[in-house]
Amino acid sequence: MNGKKNLYILAAVFFVALLTTPAISAEEHADNEETVKAAEATSKGYIAIGAALAVGLAGIGTGLAQSNIGSAAIGAVAEDDKNFTNGLIFTAIPETIVIFGLVISALIIFVL
Amino acid sequence: MLKSEKMSRMTISGHKKDLADLSKLLNDQNLVHVVEYNNEDEGFGLGKSLDYGEQSSDFLVKLRSVIKLLEVEPNPPTKIKLDSEIESEISELEAIISQAHDLRNKQRDCDRRIDEVSSNIEQLKEFEDLDIDVKYLSGYSSVTVFAGHIPQDTDVSSLSSNEKIDFIMNGENVVVFCANEISSDIEKDLLNIGFRSIDVPSGEGLPKVMLNSLDSQLLKMENEKEAILHEIQALATRNGDWLVACEEHYAALSEKSGLPLKLATSENMFVLDGWVPSNSVSDLQQSFQGLDVYYEVDNDSKEEPPIKLDNPEVAKPFELFTKLYSTPKHWEFDPTMIIFITYPLFFGLMVGDAGYGFAYILFGHYILTKFTHTEALANLGRILRTAGIYTFLFGTFIYAEAFGQSFYYIGKAIGFNSGLFANHYGPGFDIPLIEKAEGFSWHLPIHKFDPHGAQLMLLSSIIIGAIHISLGLILGFLNEWKHHDLKHAIYAKLSFFMILWGGLLALVSVVGLLSESVQTIGLVVMLTGLGLAIIGEGVVGLLEFPTIFSNVISYARIGAIGLSDYGLAYTVNFISFSLLWPSGPAGMFVAVIVMLFGHLTVFTLGIIGTGINSLRLQYVEFFTKFVQGGGTLYSPFGYIRKYTKEKEVIP
């Protein structure tokens, strides 16, 4: 349990660091034009982070769901080969989650 | 094509003495699907197998056990044996069985001895460093010996100060000798300092010397075992084909003799209940002429017939996927023909690479030729070959790339940039929604490295999804209409069709491609559909409402997998050609290895990942719209021989 708690704290620190770093670096530029450029670069960075989070987190979600379904499906197939198709279908269901993530990530990149 | 073959019900009855002739005839014709008798009527019971059945199953059991014992794998048939040949040669079986058993017993004996010696060696290794003859470690009447380990750096002063005991120590090893009377006290002392007892090995001599001799014994036994295994293998190679042919012959005989076990029989008569494809009824009737049986054919039976899928030869391999899901009922559409078109289409769109496509064609063909005698594997080979052809065509004309390398860049490297090797070819066309720079229009090929190409791939995958799902809903509508009535079909299928296309229309007008009035129409259609679904299916309809859209979005994987496969292949090329190749001969060597393994990985992922995903789109998104399944597959009585044949009896 302790390990999990540490992981959460680490993740929180990571996110805060991730979100503040570009802002700090932008403040360092005194020149106006450079500030605009830096801000543009920063916003592109945010877009990339957003897109990556969308597909990455959705992937983790799919993975969590599939790990349980997958092991149960393997068990069922081991008992009877006829369960293969049903096992495959059930295992494939959570895949849609990551596809949603992918679509959102594509929208973020192409539309923003 | 989209329907299973029409079947006629056939009942045959006659005198039991004619069963042998009937069984031979049905076996030869291979047409009648026999419905097994459920043994529920008074005065009727299940029959007994024909007289040659017992002997055949006897041989069959022996043959199967020896095939398993020798681990014989069936090869593709090379020489077809006659049944009379087999029956005259079968007397040799006993000799082979006893040889196989002898060899396996010898091997087991050898294994046992190897285990024994190995465990002896393990035991001795624990005492390897002790300089004492092993025979002194046991066999006393008044002295107790404790042998084992104590942790290193333990304070052993309690042992050394005790004058009543004698002990030897080397590293962790310790052996303590003491008189029987004080053994329990000593044991306590030892346990206190962390002593762990180990079984004392038997034998005579210094542990090191004994170990040497045991090691050489072990080596000898392992050689002996190897020789036995070689002998077994030789026996299997020598007799494998013969055994497989015999197994087939007796399996065929055993099935033929088992016909009465499926029938209703009284004291003297039998009744067979079965199904025959309607267009083969007249053939069968003709062959009954010489036989003293009475039969009736019912062309409009209300009972549920077995399903004989009816597809053109080229689409037959894809029946594998249909059967794997579930055999459709007789009133349902058989989806095989549609999978035949869409499965390789999706596969081709996903991989879309001329190089891999060609490799899949070759690999599929290899599986096909190697496993001609295993139906399912041969079919998988055929499927892979078809998928490879699509992949090759898409890779050449739509994506213009091979092994993750665009033709355009290949052309640049060799100084030839026209036709397929040009940046663009063919006439230009416009695609709404995806912005392209002013004055440019779309051309083939679609470059996967271009973000616009990626957008186009995702968008077109979703459009393909909408069409594929609509097709499923239309087939589902027709199924429902036929099996229930129009009202059911409208509530269950048309409703979702309206939700899907109403929603899509509204969406397309929201992004500005169609006028606003269309948006209203779309919303009205969608809500009407939703209303119908709720009337028809209640809350379930409401819950399923978003599913239809998530199903469509799920097709985005076609584009996504295409991009990721390309990304992998591109990375492999980049690492080997741009990073490793320029760094000298060693770099070139590593580059070749990286390239081989990298592309092999992408190739395998293509089969596993893309193959499964393309199938999943069929099963999860498409089949759920119209296939219920649960039908019984038509399996006519009769054994199809591959390694043997029955001698033609000339009348």
Which helices and strands, and how do they pair?
The complex is a heterodimer of chains A (112) and B (651).
Chain A: H1 2-27, H2 32-79, H3 84-92, H4 95-111
Helix pairs in contact in A: 1-2, 2-3, 2-4
Chain B: E1 7-15, H1 19-29, E2 33-34, E3 45-46, H2 53-69, E4 81-82, H3 83-89, H4 93-126, E5 143-149, H5 157-160, E6 166-170, E7 173-179, H6 183-192, E8 196-197, H7 207-257, E9 264-265, E10 269-277, H8 281-287, E11 293-298, H9 319-325, H10 336-351, H11 354-370, H12 375-398, E12 401-402, E13 405-406, H13 407-414, E14 425-429, E15 442-444, H14 451-483, H15 486-510, H16 516-537, H17 539-554, H18 556-580, H19 585-622, E16 644-645
Helix pairs in contact in B: 2-4, 2-7, 4-7, 10-12, 10-18, 10-19, 11-12, 14-15, 14-17, 14-18, 15-16, 16-17, 18-19
Task: Provide the descriptors you would attach to this structure in a database record.
heterodimer, A: 112 residues, mainly alpha, B: 651 residues, Alpha-Beta Plaits, six-stranded antiparallel sheet, four-stranded antiparallel sheet, 16 strands, 57% helix
* Helix percent band of chain A: over 70%
Give the overall form of chain B: extended
Kindly report the average pLDDT value of chain A.
81
Low-confidence stretches of chain A: none
The fraction of residues assigned to DSSP E strands of chain B is: 5-15%
The general outline of chain A is: elongated
Beta-strand fraction estimate of chain A: under 5%
Largest interface: A-B, 15 and 19 residues
Distance between the termini of chain A: 40 Å
Helical stretch tally of chain B: 19
Characterize the biggest β-sheet of chain A: none
- Terminal-residue CA separation of chain B: 39 Å
Largest sheet of chain B: 6 strands, antiparallel
Oligomer: heterodimer
Number of strands of chain B: 16
Instruction: Please give the number of β-strands of chain A.
Output: 0
Strand-pairing-aware structural class of chain A: mainly alpha
- Mean of residue pLDDT of chain B? 87
- Give the fraction of residues assigned to helices of chain B: 55-70%
Listing every helix as H and every strand as E from the N terminus to the C terminus, the arrangement of chain A reads HHHH
